[in-house]
Amino acid sequence: MASIDEIKEISTRIKRDIIQLTSANTGHPGGAIGAADIIAELYFSRLRHDPSNPNWEDRDRFVLSNGHLCTALYSAMARSGYFELSELQTFRKIDSRLQGHPSKHDLPGLETSSGPLGQGLSIANGMALSNRLRNSDAKVYCLVGDGEIQEGQIWEAAMTSSHYNLDNLALIINWNDIQIDGHVKDVMNIEPIAEKFSAFGWNTIEIDGHNVREIKDAFDSFENHRGAPTAIVAKTVIGKGVSYMEHEPIWHGKAPSSDEAKQALDEIGPSRFGEDLIFQ
Amino acid sequence: MGKILSGREGFGQALLEMGSENEKIVALCADLAESVKVHFFAEKFPERYFQIGIAEQDMIGTAAGLALSGYIPFATTYAVFAANRANEQIRLAACYNQANVKIAVSHAGLTTGEDGATHQALEDIASMRAMPEMTVIVPADANEAYEATRASAELDGPVYLRLGRTPVPTVTKGYGKYKIGKARKVSDGKDVTLIACGIMVEKAIVASEMLAQEGINAAVVDMHTIKPIDEEMIIKQAEETGCIVTAEEHSIIGGLGGAVAEVVSENCPVPLVRVGTKDTFGESGPPEELLKKYGLTSENIVEAAKRAMSRKKVNV
Ligand SMILES: Cc1ncc(C[n+]2csc(CCOP(=O)(O)OP(=O)(O)O)c2C)c(N)n1
């Protein structure tokens, strides 16, 4: 299991990749940067997985329900060995395996296609039920956006996870209070989030989604909790570490210009994990 | 050719104007206000604008409720999230209720571009067309989207208005009064008829010019209403030109090509070739490159026209 400092270095690397990728090829930088700490912990510390054998039956699975955050996922996958780093630069280009939103049939290692919001938790439930049927101790992690949980299907699925006591499933809610048309509170309020999941019968944990200690503790507590699914409500900041992106809805889906990208990389700072991407 | 604008821009303009003219007009959105160009209306008429959040099924139901209480709601989102995600809500709440709901969607088809297959609706015309009560309109450009938006507000009943994301040349200026269900003849011809909808109308016009250079005289029809389809126009063209090509930014299954094939085979069987996506999802990429890769260019229409002509029983 990677240390807190190691996860921070990896997360910095993922954030740098996200800036480089979206600046070169468009996409959604803000939410992805905000979730980088959580995804770093998952791919480099938490998931029991084997990038050289992505279809291993007993792997832990990560379901990215909010598919527009895929730059964070592609970076974590490339950096953990699912595919060559050089492939990252094909993101959003024609004939690429790295589609604008995840395409499972193109890229081994993706657990599902996503992009259309609200579907991931149901799929994760199916995987968690299957693990139980097969007597596998593998776990399922699912990440959703806070705006995303406005979709009714999320709450249908939340009932299912709880009804079947899926304690092998953790849902992480990326609570940055941002969606496309503004702040989630103003667009369609979803609060109180933790109380809703508690009322649905979930084990609910609230954390600062940028505090790696808290992220690790939350996953530890999930692993030790029996009898109910765990919801981790992670308070995050969109574009965390990039001053002009933080708290700004516009950075949900806007690509940084080359000047903006340079400033972002300066502010995010260097990483001791891996090298910057080189675009041909 | 005219100004380069997207269909959604024509829609946004028409909705804004209608807001001042008719206080029964209301609008709903599911967290995509600017993308669908409903933000102009939202800023001017905040009390008649309802942001529903990322909850398209709820949005369609709410729109139906407003319609059943006398308002004329325009529910807006991307094509996939209406036609696909909220399909059954559209069926029951809007169509079966005969509710006066207008569903205006952008980001239809491959030209949605880099977002990729998940966001590129290529089967929405088929599913919307199969719904009883539904009117399905696919405007060619911003001008026709403007006209169609206004016309759909005047029609009593559910309408699916399919708008593009990518700016395209305006071709329909000066076509005369727009009427739902009445196709527009762009040009006459005797060898083959190119029937197109959406952004493929412009591509069909260019194709007819390319064909003309080879001495082939192609008629072009802008079939902006897919349902009710203009049977009279199709039959007349089949009889006059003896073969037909359809072109749409949609699967060849069940869309414009399907609708025209149904009319042709029942009334006036002639060779027909459908240009559209071939039972496949799209992918990420620049719109024009995608159109090329998936066979939706003027060159593809030219080739289809030649194929259709070669199959005529009595060759000219
Ligand atoms: C079903 C569906 N409706 C609409 C969209 C368009 N869309 C993409 S991202 C997004 C906002 C998502 O908000 P949130 O989940 O809070 O993610 P964040 O902005 O924090 O990255 C919307 C509405 C979609 N992808 N899927």
Describe this protein with a few key phrases.
heterodimer, A: five-stranded parallel β-sheet, B: 316 residues, alpha/beta, Rossmann fold, 2 domains, five-stranded mixed β-sheet, 40% helix, globular, thiamine pyrophosphate (chain B), PDH/Transketolase (chain B), transferase (chain B)
Short account of what is shown:
Chain B: Its cofactor is thiamine diphosphate. The complex is a heterodimer of chains A (280) and B (316). Chain A is 39% helix and 12% strand.
Describe this structure in words.
- Chain B: This is Transketolase family protein.
- Chain B: Residues 5-170 form the Transketolase-like pyrimidine-binding domain.
- Chain B: Keywords: Thiamine pyrophosphate, Transferase.
- Chain B: Its cofactor is thiamine diphosphate.
- The complex is a heterodimer of chains A (280) and B (316).
- Chain A has 280 residues and is α/β, with parallel strands linked by helices.
- Chain A has a single domain, classed as 3-Layer(aba) Sandwich (Rossmann fold), CATH 3.40.50.
- In chain A, 39% of the residues lie in helices and 12% in strands.
- Chain A is built from ten helices and seven strands.
- Chain A has helices spanning 4-25, 29-34, 36-46, 70-79, 120-133, 152-163, 184-187, 193-199, 212-224, 258-268, and strands spanning 61-64, 140-145, 169-175, 178-179, 182-183, 203-208, 230-235.
- In chain A, the strands form two sheets. A five-stranded parallel β-sheet of chain A has the order 1-2-3-7-6, with helices on both faces.
- In chain A, strand 6 (203-208), helix 9 and strand 7 form a beta-alpha-beta unit.
- Chain A is globular.
- Chain B contains twelve helices and 14 strands.
- The relative contact order of chain B is 0.13.
- Classes of the chains: A alpha/beta (280), B alpha/beta (316).
- Chains A and B meet through loops of A and helix 4 and helix 11 of B.
- Thiamine diphosphate sits between chains A (31, 66, 68, 115-118, 145-148, 174, 176, 178-180, 184, 252) and B (30-32, 54, 56, 81, 85).
